[in-house]
Structures are given as structure tokens and as C-alpha cells.
Automatic annotation (TrEMBL):
Belongs to the PRA-PH family. PROSITE patterns: PROKAR_LIPOPROTEIN (PS51257). This is Phosphoribosyl-ATP pyrophosphatase. One of its GO terms (molecular function) is phosphoribosyl-ATP diphosphatase activity. PANTHER family: HISTIDINE BIOSYNTHESIS BIFUNCTIONAL PROTEIN, HISTIDINE BIOSYNTHESIS BIFUNCTIONAL PROTEIN HIS7. Gene3D superfamilies: MazG-like (1.10.287.1080). GO terms for biological process: L-histidine biosynthetic process. Pathway: Amino-acid biosynthesis; L-histidine biosynthesis; L-histidine from 5-phospho-alpha-D-ribose 1-diphosphate: step 2/9. It catalyses: 1-(5-phospho-beta-D-ribosyl)-ATP + H2O = 1-(5-phospho-beta-D-ribosyl)-5'-AMP + diphosphate + H(+). It is an enzyme of class 3 (hydrolase). SUPFAM superfamilies: all-alpha NTP pyrophosphatases.
Amino acid sequence: MRQATSDRTDCGFGQLDLGYLSTSAGIACLIDLSGIGGMSPLPCLAAIAIMLLGFPVSIPQNFAASNETNVTATLPNAPVSPSATDSSVVSRLMAVIEDRKRNPPAKSYTTTLLQGGVVKIGGKIQEEAREVVEAAYEQGEPGRKHVIAEAADVVYHLLVLLALQEVSWAEVEAEIARRFGMSGLDEKMARPPKG
Ligand SMILES: N=c1c2ncn([C@@H]3O[C@H](COP(=O)(O)OP(=O)(O)OP(=O)(O)O)[C@@H](O)[C@H]3O)c2ncn1[C@@H]1O[C@H](COP(=O)(O)O)[C@@H](O)[C@H]1O
């Protein structure tokens, strides 16, 4: 297991914090309510309330930067249609792995895996998958951190298998995007009967 080196994982989901915006608006309104400007009181009071409560609202960066209109992205954990072209740390890792395949250095764990083929990589994926499940039974923050570390191991080894099989990460992302918003239960019901 590779040890976690940071308490915080950047998932490439940059945040535009509305707290800053509401604070600015709130300060402007406080000045305004003191009689200097001509702003409407209701929006002002709302902005001040948000400012004082520190309302935890954020917009995913990819939403803020896009023109999509059908996304309820102002709610934390709201589903956001992913773009298959988003650059992410996973994409960057995949690029490193693909480069290892094209130009194998003498000293590289990835190269060792690729040389071992499906047997070696598949064995590691199974091992890491078992370890992440075992970690999920561990309690508290140490258990949670262990899950993160083991999950990263699973993802890394899975990417190596994809590279071996000439499958790009973009293709997997496209498949994930295609499934977006489709319940697994509905998808199963829509399948033709077996046999
Ligand atoms: N993300 C990873 C990554 N995650 C896990 N691992 C390695 O995966 C191995 C599996 O861990 P385990 O402890 O489960 O396996 P093990 O070391 O054989 O130990 P046991 O099975 O004996 O317990 C460890 O050696 C980890 O260091 C990784 N090795 C490489 N990368 C990335 O791949 C890049 C290229 O690596 P190299 O190809 O080695 O240069 C690196 O810069 C990293 O960005």
C-alpha cells in the first residue's frame, strides 16, 4: 500500500466560493443601508444574512466555466454532468502510464506491471480491491484515510490495465458520462431478457 502523503485530496473540482461574493455584496449593502446608495432593501438583507451565516455554497469550476443551463450545481453534491474532456489528475496519471508503455524506463514499477501482463496487473487489482474493502471495515479517521490510500492503489492499477489493453481514460470517462443520470435499476430493467 502506498502511504497517503496529504490530508487533502484535490479532485480537480475547483471551487468558486460564493461566500466571498456574498461578503462583498453584504458589505456593499451595509454601506447602502446606511443611506449612501439607492439599493433595494430585500436583496441587501439576504446578502447580509448570507454573509453573516457564512452560507456554504459553492459552484464546481467546470460548471461556472461552462454554458450548461440544466445543472443544479449550486447545491453541494448535486449531480453535475461531467465532460469527457475534463483534465484531471487521473488523466495526467494515465498520460504518465501511457508514456511508460511507449518509453519504458529501466527503473519503473509501471513498466514491471506492464511486462507482467494481465496476470500480474489483474492480480494486483484483485489484491488492492480486497484491501480497500478491508479498509472500509476500519473505524474512524484512520479507517477513512486507509480507504483513500487503497482506493488510489486500485485506480492506479486499473489505469495500468487500461493502458495495457489500449483503452484510453477518455473512453472510460465517455462511458461514465453516457450513463450519467441513468439509474442502475432502470438500466437493468431495460435490458433484454437473458436466454
Ligand atoms: N500512482 C502510483 C502508484 N500507486 C501505487 N503504486 C505502487 O503500487 C505498489 C503496490 O503497492 P502494495 O504495497 O500493495 O504492493 P507491494 O509493494 O508489492 O507490497 P506487498 O504486495 O508485498 O504488500 C507500490 O509499490 C506502490 O508504490 C504506484 N506507483 C506509481 N504511481 C504513479 O505512477 C507514476 C510512475 O511510476 P513508475 O512507473 O514507478 O515510475 C508515479 O510517478 C506515480 O504518479
